[in-house]
Design brief:
The protein is mainly α. It has 2 domains: about 5-70, Winged helix-like DNA-binding domain superfamily/Winged helix DNA-binding domain (Arc Repressor Mutant, subunit A), CATH 1.10.10; about 85-194, Arc Repressor Mutant, subunit A (Orthogonal Bundle), CATH 1.10.10. The protein has helices spanning about 5-20, 25-30, 35-50, 70-85, 90-100, 105-115, 120-125, 150-155, 165-194; strands at about 25, 55-60, 65-70, 130-135, 145.
Length: about 190
């Protein structure tokens, strides 16, 4: 195979991986800077490169995506099932409470309120379907985490405002963040004057 074709296939794999889901063939072609006719042999080469590995290329007439290869799918499913059967623990409950009562929150905001790094806890809650990740309209570099409709249904509420003591707890969280932010600003200002 020509190195250009292999390199284009590697780039296609990288774009599909970074997307984390399917891409339309048109979008993938645009990202690669190729026409639809030029994309077909690139996808064929990528499919060949993935043979015998843990991933496979799934193609439809309009989309392309990476998926777990059939040879590994039972192992992956079993591992995730074990994770799903575990209790989310206190850390998971705290993160859910923050997102439910505070509203859509960035990981940094959740970390700040909890006082610890919550990356793995958020990952677990995402995989369990309790949280969803959306783009942050205020900062494209970070995500907002929100409760899923499945979580709300599990809790037996239609909106977070129906949660017990929602207004009181949301107000306390807002007051805590305001006070903590003011204290941090004062500390920073005094350190600059020293």
């Amino acid at each position: 195979m020509a190195p250009d074709l292999t390199h284009s296939a590697q780039r296609a794999e990288a774009f599909l991986f970074s997307e984390g889901g399917s891409l339309t063939r048109k979008k993938l072609g645009s990202l690669l800077g190729v026409t639809e006719a030029e994309l077909a042999p690139i996808l064929t080469r990528l499919s060949e490169m993935l043979l015998g590995g843990g991933l496979s290329l799934i193609l439809t007439d309009t989309e392309a995506t990476l998926a777990v290869a059939k040879a590994c799918s039972d192992d992956v499913r079993a591992a995730y099932q074990r994770d799903l059967e575990k209790d989310i623990g206190d850390a998971g409950s705290e993160v859910l409470a923050i997102v439910l009562y505070r509203g859509p929150s960035t990981r940094a905001q959740i970390d700040y309120i909890r006082g610890v790094n919550t990356s793995s806890t958020i990952r677990t809650l995402l995989s369990r379907g309790f949280l969803e990740r959306t783009g942050n309209p205020d900062d494209a570099r970070e995500y907002l985490y929100r409760p899923t409709v499945e979580l709300l249904a599990h809790l037996g509420v239609r909106t977070t405002h129906e949660l017990p003591d929602h207004a009181k707890i949301a107000g306390e969280l807002a007051a805590f963040e305001t006070t903590a932010r003011a204290t941090a600003d004062e500390t920073e200002a005094s350190e600059r004057t020293i």
